[in-house]
Design brief:
Blueprint: E1 2-9, H1 17-21, E2 33-35, E3 40-46, E4 52-60, E5 68-76, H2 81-95, H3 102-111, H4 131-139, H5 146-160, E6 163-164, E7 167-171, H6 176-181, H7 184-191, H8 196-208, H9 215-218, H10 224-232, H11 239-248, H12 259-268, H13 277-281, H14 291-302
Antiparallel strand pairs: 1-5, 2-3, 3-4, 4-5, 6-7
The structure holds a DNA duplex.
Length: 315
Amino acid sequence: MINEIQLQLTPPVPFSFSGTVGSHGWVDLLPNAWDAETKSMRRVEKLSSGKVVKLIIFEECKEEVTPVIGVNVESQGILLEHEITEIRTRVSDMLRLDEDLSEFYSLCARRGAPWDKITKGLGRMLRAPTFFEDVVKTICTTNVQWGGTKGMVKRLVEVYGEPYPNDETMHTFPSPEIIATAPFDDFHGYVRMGYRSDYVHLLSKRIASGELDLESIKTSSLPTSELKKQLLSIKGVGNYAAANLLMLIGRYDELAIDSIFRTYMRERYFKGVLPSDKEAALIYDDWGKWKYLAYWFEIWEYYNNQSPPQSEQSS
DNA sequence: TTCCAGGGGTAGA
DNA sequence: TCTACCCATGGA
């Protein structure tokens, strides 16, 4: 029996739902999917109890001053209270509703236009409910075009994710345990991640065996430099990937220097001449611990306000 | 066919 | 710390 309930979450004020869900390309990577018509994000989740549920996340009551996030939950059978609590926690975590950006907003307000746009509720970068998913997806963004990233993640989810019982075309993001138990040759052949499949398979095995507690990094209070060291110790994670992952856990003091960053800096600040990475990074030095968010907003503005550079329409 | 993408690992200096 | 070289994959 299909059971449907609707949950409501109260985000902080200000909060931009579209600005958060479309903050970067993550909404386009399965199991996430954006429905432009209903302006909602869809996702299948496997709860700790083992139940697989479908979530549709959207913004309610746009005319109201206080925003409300609606979550339609579809499941087989009635959900227990602790399962509902878990869904709330995961959605809140993805949308980063608990993150305090007030200091960053104050800085932006003082700088005036265009930075004051951020204070309308931008700056919350969509993430996955698990750090494992974010790390795997980040590895899949390295040295590949965005279409390639989407393909790798799609194959990973569709082959190794758990299907949603009421619609088997939809899947969860696979657990480390599932990937770890898959023979490497099969995994490599199915997901076609190139050399990245070694990194993802090894990471999964380390987590499944208990050798690595990846999720603890997400909530650690250690200094950013220490967390960066831990991230760099993961095979497949270099400086770019580590900075991207630090951003996803609320540490914005590092810039993710990739081809997008270099192209942007060359065009915007260095008159067509490619600067060194160090020279380019100095542009954001006075943003202190908010460098990443400042850079990301600026590049967003530069490339047509809405779409991330060199990405297909993703939000 | 060649280039290169939201780079990273490794060896050697 | 820096550089050179190699690394699968697939779109342009």
